[in-house]
NAD-dependent protein deacylase
Amino acid sequence: MTKKEDQKNALESLVHWLRRTPRVVVLTGAGVSQESGIPTFRGPGGWWRNFRPEELATPRAFAKDPRLVWEWYDWRRSLIRRAEPNVGHRALVELEKALPQFTLITQNVDGLHRRAGSRQVLEIHGSIWEVRCPGCGKVEEDHRVPIPIPPYCDACGGLLRPNVVWFGEDLDPRVLDAARQALVQAQVMLVIGTSAVVQPAASFALWAQAAGAKLAEINPAPTPLTQHCDLVLTGKSGEILPLLVRRFKGLGL
C-alpha cells in the first residue's frame, strides 16, 4: 500500500470516528499558527535580537528588565496583528459547528482561533491580547499596537504584564480543570501542529487516551506522541483539515 493510500485510509477512519461520536477534543500548537506566518518559539523565526524566548518569557526576565520584555511582546503583537486565520483555523470552526460536543484547547496565545470564529476555546497559555496587573489583579483586553512601553494599570498604577503563562509558571487552575474535564470525557481527540514536548499539554492526549478516547495526530513530522496514536496523518493542518471537513460533509476528496 502506498503512502498516499495510507493517508486516505487514515482520513476515512477519522471521518468514521467523528460521525459516530458526539464528544471531540482538539489540541492545537504553534504549527497551526505558523501556517499564518507567525514564527514558532523553537523555529529560526522565533528569535528576536539574538534572544531566545526562554530568556524573555519568564518572571525573572520581567522583574529584571520589563521594558525589554515588553519590547519583545510588542514586536510579537505587531506580527500577529498582520496575520490572518488560515484554512486550518477555518476548518476547525466548521468542525465545531458540525459536532455536538466540541472543545478546542490551544497552546497558542495569538487569538487566531477566536478570530476565525471558534467559540469553545480554552487558551491554556493565555492571550497576548490581554494584560494583567500583578498588583490589583485586574485583567483586560488591550489591542494597542504599538503598546506604550511599559504599560501601567489605570486602576492602581502598577506595572502591567502580558496575561500569558511564562516558563516556570503554572497554568491557570480554572482553565486546566476545564481542559481536564473535556479530556476525560472525550471519545476522539485530535492533536494538531504541536511538538508534543511542552508540559502539561504534551500529556493531554495521553490523559484522553487513558480515559478511552481514540487518538489522532496531524503534523508534518513525527513527535514523541506519534507512537501512541491510533491514527497519524502526516502533513500541514491547512492541507489536511479542509480535506477532513470536506469528507465529513460527504463532499468527496
